[in-house]
Amino acid sequence: MPQxxxxxxxxxxxxxxxxxxxxxxxxxxxxxxxxxxxPDSAVERARVISRRLxxxxxxxTGVLLHTNLGRAPLSWSQNADYSNLELDLDTxxxxxxxxxxxxxxxxACGAESAMVVNNCAAAVLLTLAALAQGRxxxxxxxxxxxxxxxxxxxxxxxxxxxxxxEVGTTNRTRWEDYAAALADPGSDAALVVQVHRSNxxxxxxxxxxxxxxxxxxxxxxxxxxxSGLLDSRCPWLTGGPPGWLDAEPAARQSLEAGxxxxxxxxxxxxxxxxxGVIAGRADLVxxxxxxxxxxxxxxxxxxxxxxxETALAYLRRDGEAIDFWRMAVLSTEQLxxxxxxxxxxxxxxxxxxxxxxxxPGVEIESLGVSVAGDCTGRLxxxxxxxxxxxxxxxxxxxxxxxxPDDDAEVADALRQAAAQPSD
Length: 423
Ligand SMILES: *Cc1c(COP(=O)(O)O)cnc(C)c1O
Description:
The protein has helices spanning 9-14, 23-35, 42-50, 99-109, 120-132, 153-160, 175-183, 211-215, 251-256, 282-290, 292-296, 301-315, 323-328, 332-336, 376-380, 407-418, and strands at residues 58-59, 63-65, 113-117, 136-140, 163-167, 191-195, 221-226, 261-265, 276-280, 346-355, 364-372, 386-387, 389-391, 394-398. The chain has 423 residues and is of the alpha/beta class. A hairpin with a 2-residue loop joins strand 13 (389-391) and strand 14.
């Protein structure tokens, strides 16, 4: 291109066709490049735009629920099709989008009824708005937590219109603290709320009533367990619950202990799409369903279909079909058996973590493959980015979070990276 006169925006944009973006975006890239006096930068500008789009990546970090990588891995595709989203196939009349999924989730966690909203924050908001608006909701000072991404329990409670009544202290809250608040003549408490401290641990001189004790206080107990473990016995895993699950609260056991409702995320330990589940007493779920906010927080058919797939896998007791669980329980021997695909590369011990703000401090023994130096930038810049970690001046890919089908691609990428100087 002649350097004295800038090229036409149109011609430059058309020369970027291979980047694979719609012409309107290529024109933007071309225009910016010309305005910057650097037409040659147009290709890079177009690539920058294209890398902002949602696209699959390979997770080599060993963090099973990686918040930046969409938490639980999810494979889902659907042909363009109508569905019976809100059609009752028996009567031909208007149906309820929550009915099928509600039935499956209720069955899976032993609840009378269940419904789905967009995420767990929405589940908490809706539950409080529907059941405690303008009235008191009791919560321990030790559970006024921030979960991440700005989800603060006191803020959500305030937005719901419930009046937050704090009981106990940061480290110790007793049954008597709740009972005293309820005995206050001015108290019109509608709910007791229990919030799982998902992402941090309180150790040392601590005390908190058990779920069954909180349930005995009188008002319905809403237990926000957050992470979405359905059943602490993990009947979907042939080997039973892994040791690292520890004392993670589970939906079925919380309900058995007397919680009136549980709320949890769909994309943490549940292993499904982003969603929030409200499960428990039928009359309370019904009140949530009827609240005007339910409409604003309702998920679409894509999410419901993916969640249904996950719930059906639980009911078939088929943990293999739930990618999070399939990966989470892989033994190091199973991981080692894949090393053949990584010939010529260095195998190394690794430790995976559940991630997603669940089970803080838990490490799962794993196996990685490493190359010297920091190649993470180069791995990220591949057409299908590979996200790896740097440890002791080496780049490590944890095999636990890599699908076996991707082993050959990851091995190739690491061999190429090893053959080049570090970033
Ligand atoms: C993760 C979590 C939330 C927020 O869940 P989202 O699905 O991300 O909205 C709320 N409460 C608890 C206890 C959690 O663990």
